Amino acid sequence: MTGRERQSNEPHDKFIKQFVPVVLKNLFESQTSVPVRLSEALAIDILCIAIKRDPQVAIDDSLGLLGRLVAVHPTIIIEHYSNYLDLEDVDSCVLRSAIYWELTKSQADSSRKTRVTKDSVLSPNPLHLDRPFTWIFAAKCSENSLKRWNAIPAPEFGAHVYRLAAPGLSMGIVNLEALAHNSDTLLLKLLGKSESAKLAFADILKLDPNLELRNDIIEVSIKYCVYLEQFQSELTAEDLSFMTYVKEVEEAYQEWVIKRQTEGKVALVNKMVRAKFGIDTLTPELSDRLSRLSDRQLDEFTSKIFEWQDLSEMVDWLNTPSA
Pfam families recorded for this chain (predicted)? Predict the structure, then answer.
């Protein structure tokens, strides 16, 4: 992006560069700010290369529409625009993709080239598995930009997702704000304007607290808000609103982290009891008593157990008022 584009897009740019690698970590190895050089430095927002080097990328249903979008090809470029996508933006995306491939194709595995047939020529995907397909995620997209690049609807993905019909342009556009708000679009709505992101974040919080994806997103969102604090004087009212909302859940998230850590300690002391006094000594009653120890008491227990020679000593300690 140009200096003007990078400056206006920088805060949200930071978020997507943390967000996408986290949610796609089971499918892709993601790099951010990939340098592409011509007469000046250019950078691809995110380059995702499938972990399994198969022609077909597995669809992760937990990722909803985002999962289906990245499954179109094993090498994906994601470019993000937090404001209106204009004609020059699409030009820049085409240029970055073309330069990247020009610089890397000499190192590409020739066996991964798709055989040219009548069907493959008509396919919108690249003819080489290492040549990227680019998705442009735009908060908003004008009809002029779509017409200029002959973007046609991609019904297999639903409304407001387009592919560029021009031959050789392996590229698509997603109009984030126009997408319906539902469980299928949840991850993509997080990348839209702040009000849409707040609604999506609220739904993320409602997911199973033990779901790794949920907690990864919460952690990334909190880190993003900490990053935003240095731009407070430059942020819009809606950006400030989103930042405030996310920070309100930070305390709840930290409580969850502490709870998980405590659960890990409980599992450890249970294992220690079995190892020292025998597997049959850990009765349901004793296990329940151990699970109700505080974090401080668990730390003390792990020190004391090395001193006890008999199970009765441990039981006496557990029955003392301080334990």
Answer: DUF4351
